[in-house]
Structures are given as C-alpha cells and as structure tokens.
Specification:
Blueprint (H helix, E strand, L loop, with lengths): L2 H28 L1 H14 L14 H18 L4 H9 L4 H28 L6 H50 L4 H11 L5 H15 L4 H12 L2 H16 L4 H63 L1
Amino acid sequence: MSPAIFAALVSAALLMTVAALALLGYVAAQSRAQSRLSDRLRGADGLSGEEIPMIAGPLSGLLAVLVKGGRWLERRLDPDNESSRLLAQAGWRSAAQQGIWHAFQAVCPLAALVFAVALWTFAVPPLKPLVVLLYGVMALIVSILAPRWVLRSAAESRRVHIRQEVPLFIHLLVLLFEAGLSTRQALASLVREGRGVLPTLGEEFARVLRSLDAGGDTGEALRGMSNALEVSDLNGVLAVLRQVDRYGGEVREPLLDTLAIIEERNSLDLRERINRMSGRMTVVMVMFFFPALLIFVAGPAFVSILKALGEAAAG
C-alpha cells in the first residue's frame, strides 16, 4: 500500500473519531432537559445516577455503554474520587456534563486501540510487532491520561476565574452589609442582580442558596462550597461569613482586612510575573536584538578594517 493511501486512511479514521465525539456532544446536549429531570428525581427519591437513563434519543444504547465504561475506568483509575472534586471545580455538575466526560474517558482508549490496529494493518513498510506494541502502549497511556488533563485544565481555569472575582465580591458584600442586609439576603442579592459581574461566583452561590432553601445550615453550606472549590482567597471570605453567621459581630472590618491581604498577595504575584517577564525579555534581547545592534554599530568599522588590510596586502 502506498504512503498516500495510508495517510488517507489515517485521516479518515481521525475524522470519524472527531465526528463521533461531535455526535456524542450533540446527543448529550439534546438530552439536557431529561438530565435535569433525572437530577430532580435523584434528589427526591434517592436514586443513583446509574438507575436513571441520562441520555435519550438516537444511539442511546451506545452512549449508555460509553458512559458506563467511563465510570468503570474512573473507579479503577481514581480510587480517591478526585474526579468528583475536579468536576465540581470545573462546574460540570449536571448529569449531561458528567455523562459527556465519562463517555470521553471511554472513547479515548478505544481511539488508541483503533490507532494501534491501523498501524499494524496499514503501515508501509510493515512494522515489527514489538514496535507496534510500543506505539500501542504509548497511545493507551496518553488516552488514559488525556481526559484527566482536560478535566484538571478546566478546573484550574475556572478556579482562576473565581480568584479574579473575589475582590469585587468582597466590595459588593461590604456595600450590602452596610445597607443592613443579612448574610443570606446579601448572597441572594448577589445571585439575583450580580450575575453580570460575578458569573462564576454567582453560579456557585446559587447552589448554596438552593441548599439553604432546602433547610440546610448556612455555615455548613459555605463550608461545603469552600472545600469543593479550594480557592484560598475565597476560603478566607467564606470563613469570615461563617464566623459572623455563627457568632455575630462586625463584618465590615474583617472583610476589608481580608481584601487588603488578597490585594497585597496579588501585587506580589504581579511583581513576580513582571520579574520573570523581564528575565525572558533579557534573553530575547541578547539572542536577537544584541547581534543586530552589534552588526549595525561595529559592522562599518569591521568592513573598513578588512578593506584597509586588503589594500595593505595588495600594496
């Protein structure tokens, strides 16, 4: 088989994999309404996620198998249940979003298997079995680690967004407390009217308010949010809110002190980033700008010296 045909087959296999993932996302998006109903039923009746069909529509059987396979892999590869924490930090809490991630986790090893079979079948010239096995093991390792890399990247990105919203959140809290609102009223006001300026934190506090409406304790709800997100700047603010909710007292000064600490920490981080950037720019200048400057400044003198030496040698 010619290299052109082999490249075409590999390209077709990659396109089919991408199309399958796109179809998976489309079908899961179409089933969002049913997944929300499943969440309500699970909360009301105490059913597990596996007892409620999460995905309906075409290819439902295949998608259900992929989701179950992803959950099986997660139980084997993540005994400490780190994925649940990362899913919460990434904001992927709905049944549809978790189903998409589990299906993606199951599709990746299948794609690695398809890659190994295609390499064994269509490689020109034929590869040795040991080489194919090595490539297959490498592809399998990458396919197992890739979903976790994606999840950690999404969780870290969302945690960065939350950290950036914390200073504005503190300012708004101070204004609302000075207006005479309680902790629950202030959070409800932020969720209701502050989604435009605090989109990520507003989503998290909306969950806290739903827990409070269901009869939960304010301190426990805030503690659960703090443990789930693991954002150091936000943890200090939530600790102040828990203390005020439990013991009462002045809230403005502790919040402003926390804000001052956060701003000082952000200033130090910014200075550190600037220092690292200055070092990198120095390397760039030495490698690219300094040689050009040296040629521009010393070039004419060097050419004149060479010309004089040439004339002296000729004379």
